Amino acid sequence: MRSCLTRWQCICRSLCPLLAAPVVWLLRLVWPPKFAFRAERLDGSALRPPAGALRVLHASDLHLSQGRLAVRRLRRVVEAAHERGADLAVLTGDFELPISVPRRVEVMGLLSELCSLMPTYACLGNHDYKIDQQDLLRDLRQCGVVVLVNEAVTVTINGQELRLVGVGDFWKSDLAPEKCLSLKEDDNAWAVPTLLLVHNPDAILMYLQKFAWTVAFSGHAHGGQLRVPFTNWYPLAPIRHNYLARPGLHEIAPGQTLCESAGVGNFLGIRINSQGDAIFLSIDEPKQ
Ligand SMILES: [Fe+2]
């Protein structure tokens, strides 16, 4: 009896992918995954201390090994960067660069193009901790992407000093904010506006609220890939704080804003009532 059940389990397990394939195909036919560019605006006082006007292109969760669609989407992001321009780009993890050499070369060409247009900074997502992580880091850096893993850099953009910080992923036990962020009460903690790149927005509420940063950029939730109609409920979003799956701006605390992206790529190509996105965030000139 036991061996019979085991055999059935084996059969079911091997049939599951075969049965899932037509279901996924049907869902994609009924709800083709959509993608849009989202424009968000923040008041000039959002940066602490106030700084000059700033335009940020935020793209997250590229998942570039998930087929041609993902690569086409990255191409659209680079084209939009050409057309609309920005002062810098931030990429908030889950790259999953393609394994196949021709597609990887194509993707690296697109990322290099983006880096030639504007300085580009990145943090890692939970999918970026695989056995080939060193290859991923090498290839991203070769494209010109500045990858920050519990690291900070101070840069001058538009004549304005900014601090860019990227933290490691907390699902992968690699979150070490004390290495790269100041506590709110530290001397000089607010001397330069800090932009924080953190893949999973849960990490902000659970671990990062005591640190000094002004605008954080996250992804990971993919807008749940399913939003219940007429609600902001994302039942499949892999985060504890479900409301943070809503793409756009969230005020976390006075002077601390989260910019959440629904992501460029997706899992299995299914998105129901929850489109993917890349965000152009404009921070206004502060009022005199
Ligand atoms: Fe992701």
Structure characteristics:
288 residues; six-stranded mixed sheet; 5 helices; 23% strand; alpha/beta; Purple Acid Phosphatase, chain A, domain 2; 2 domains
Walkthrough of the structure:
This protein has 288 residues and is an alpha/beta fold. The protein has two domains: 1-30; 34-283, 4-Layer Sandwich (Purple Acid Phosphatase, chain A, domain 2), CATH 3.60.21. It contains five helices and twelve strands. Helix 2 (68-84) packs parallel to helix 3 (101-117). The longest helix is centred in the N-terminal third of the chain and has 29 residues, at 2-30. The mean pLDDT is 91.
Write the layout of secondary structure elements.
Layout (H helix, E strand, L loop, with lengths): L1 H29 L4 E8 L11 E6 L8 H17 L3 E5 L8 H17 L2 E4 L9 H11 L2 E2 L3 E7 L2 E7 L27 E4 L4 H7 L6 E4 L29 E6 L2 E5 L15 E8 L5
Parallel strand pairs: 1-12, 2-3, 3-4, 4-5, 7-8, 8-9, 9-11
Antiparallel strand pairs: 2-12, 6-7, 10-11
Helix pairs in contact: 2-3, 3-4
Bound molecules: fe (ii) ion.
Fe (ii) ion (FE2) binds next to loops.
